[in-house]
Amino acid sequence: MNHLPEEHYIARFKDRNTRRGWEKKGKKDAISRAREKVDRILASHKPEPLEKNVVKKLEEIRRRAQKESGT
Prior knowledge:
71 residues; mainly alpha
């Protein structure tokens, strides 16, 4: 019992409804439910902008790589 919180796994996209309930909800499999979640996340996610010093460092790396590759 001490290890249950760490070892117990609950599938996130498993449907625990009865067959009738599952059919009423559109018969979606785990992949369909996962895709819907991905779509919701992508539609609503607003990433924080990078800090200016990080952007500057990335630009330096890009320029150096460009110069080294000759492009």
